[in-house]
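Re: beginner question about structure tokens

> Can someone show what the tokenized structure looks like for a real chain? I only ever see the sequence side.

Sure, here's an example I had lying around. Input first:
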Amino acid sequence: MDTSRPIRLVTVAPGHFHAALVQKHAAPGVHRRVHVYAPLDADLVAHVARVAAFNGRAENPTAWELDVRAGADWRERFLREQPGNTVVLSGRNRPKVGLIRAAVALNLHVIADKPWVIDAADLPELDAALAEADDREVLVWDVMTERHEVANRLLRALTREPAVFGDWLGGSAMHPALTLTSTHYLNKTVDGRPLRRPWWWFDPTIAGEGLADVGTHLADLALWLVAPDEPVAPGADAEVYAADRWPLVLTREQFAEVTGLPEVPPEFAPRLAGDLLYYAGNHTAWLGVRGIHVRLTTKWEYDSPGGDTHVAVARGTDAVAEVRQQPGSPPDVFVRASEASHADLLAHLTAAVGRWQAEFPGLAVVDGGSEVKLAIPAALRTGHEEHFAAVMAEYGRAFAAPRSVPAWERVNARTKYHLTTRAVELARARRPF
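And the corresponding structure tokens:
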């Protein structure tokens, strides 16, 4: 990276803990002074406390300096003063696309946490923001942490290995060729502390429904796996066939525990049934991506038995590759033969793993008789919070050479939001609540 032109972060309206995780580790080329523009509210206080904890930890402390400019005129001051070159957005989702567009109009790069939009009505504004970013040669960077999970990287490598996987099966709605399931938990710890969620996180008009939010990762992975390094146009190459949803039902006590609020805000009255709050967190969507049937499922539960989990199944003509994860354990990757013999699968997979050592050093093959496990060494294991450092390193390389970002990234950024917002529309029509 050209260190003579450091990345100078400007964090705008931080409302989600991901805004702080961008700073959990000091990234090369990022200036230590970070400006923050926000309302003077509980979200800002929580953000500053998280960054202060990174500076104060015993092991590998950071040395961030925060210049906080808080007040009712935070947006006007940000637009007027522009003290940095990279805007970090991770907060309320409804206004996010407007902030992206405003930053781009000022020739500022943007690191924006998902989701950029939560309703299809906002897609034209996203299109305009991305088109202007191209014209101005500034970056709009999506924080796709799941691409840096080693199990997902291995799944992608497997599906690109014809001798092992064969070709993608087309599948059907009942038996999709790719299934991706993500289960998240409300009551959990982040960086060793109980996570407090802001009240608005439960309001779908502000935060979006589950598939529009965490489902962004699944839609991104679907494009990344089925059509790697290729542009996938919405409609022509990718469409949503159907979608469904069902609520996560919370008691008032559970809501109070995860938000720290003594009462449910009056704005939530339409979603209350007695003492129960209905949160639109659970969805399933059936998609077509380049003729391949895909099913995405997002689930929210209350108490975590050991952390969020991710499961994936990819079906090829010669083999089935799976990511399996039990709560409290890291994800593992398994492969079993479908048309090919187990002996042939083992031989081809062993050869492939040998070629992959530069990218996955220490990866090994374990023959389980009916399936093969990829033994992932501890050195390749990184958690969700560490994936933000990988995203920042990736952004740093793009910041140094914006024209090096491939065109398919820009196309697919728009496509995944077309898929998620369309799926939410279909799910709402199918099951109002």
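Each token stands for a local structural state, so reading them left to right follows the chain. The chain has a mean pLDDT of 95.
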